[in-house]
Amino acid sequence: MAEEAVIRVENLAARFDGRTIFEHVSFEVRRGEVFVILGGSGSGKSTLLKHVIGLYPPAEGSIHILGEPMGGLDGAARTALLRRIGVMWQSGALFGSLTLAENVEVPLEEHTDLPAEARSLVAQAKLGLVGLADAAGRLPAEISGGMAKRAGIARAMALDPPILFLDEPSAGLDPITSAGLDALIRQLARDLGTTFVVVTHELQSILAIGDRCIMLDKQARGLIAEGDPRRLREESENPVVRAFFRREVLA
Ligand SMILES: Nc1ncnc2c1ncn2[C@@H]1O[C@H](COP(=O)(O)OP(=O)(O)OP(=O)(O)O)[C@@H](O)[C@H]1O
Ligand SMILES: [Mg+2]
Question: Domain of 219: which CATH number?
């Protein structure tokens, strides 16, 4: 039996002021996989993410998450759906005046009726999952960049979403910290069955964590590849895809 699609994007187009960023974009994300969105800077990766989670209305096409049409929901149904997805943005900003535990509690305060003690227990548990149990009382300024990324993931996981979106989780991290974050993503996917949609352009991360990927291209204004990244590296005939996966200079 085919794996169930938790996200279905059909013929999506993104335009700003009449300028097409991408069009004819279709893909599915299956339950429990780590799905990677890749492409050069400015190819529209973050824009695609913002469309998928309903921040921008599509110029064309449709998006379904967990079977629900993103565009067709009213206030309450939309909020309920948004509660089921966690997002860590590229800027990843934690609230600077709040401790890590308090940061993780923010979505719980906004979206649940949990009493303070329960919120605190959940926050502690989420920080434990990302290896930050001992840093719960620290402020963002008192931790490293890698720890801040992990805290951002803990906050995105606060409401136990079945789908987590991470926009460039390892940007700006050293290779060892970045590899640790990759291992964490794989572990969470395996242990919790969470579906991950990860935006990155780091080749090593893609090969380490990605079950499947899509590649956006600025010139093509759309998708130029889809599939298992290891196979794309070996088999793609597209010169841009080959250059990316083999770190070759494009002729
Ligand atoms: N709200 C917006 N209004 C107008 N143009 C936008 C908006 N958001 C994004 N763009 C444009 O869309 C294009 C794609 O931007 P996007 O941030 O999605 O790229 P990206 O692939 O995430 O790049 P990076 O790897 O640098 O993060 C850019 O040309 C950007 O200027
Ligand atoms: Mg981006």
Answer: 3.40.50.300
Least Cα distance to 169 among 205, 142, 139 occurs for 205
Cite the beta strand spans of 89-194 per DSSP E. 163-167
d(CA 94, CA 104): 9
Ligand nearest to the CA of 218: 1
Residue 150 sits in which domain range? 95-160
* Residue 209 within any structural domain of the chain: yes
Report how far apart, in Å, the C-alpha atoms of 162 and of each of 23, 140, 156 are: 28, 26, 11
Hunting for tokens 């970045």 — which residue is that?
178
Distance in angstroms (rounded) separating the CA atoms of residues 70 and 61: 11
Give, using CA atoms, the residue closest to atom 17 of ligand 1. Answer: 46
pLDDT classification of 90: cutoffs 50, 70, 90? confident
Model's pTM, two decimal places?
Answer: 0.92
Q: What is the mean pLDDT of the chain?
A: 92
The CA-CA-CA angle for residues 64, 65, 70, to 5°, reads 60
Please state the rounded mean pLDDT for residues 228-240. 93
Q: Report every protein residue that has its C-beta within 5 angstroms of ion ligand 2.
A: 45-46
CA nearest ligand 1 atom 6, residue: 16
89 within a domain of the structure (yes/no): no
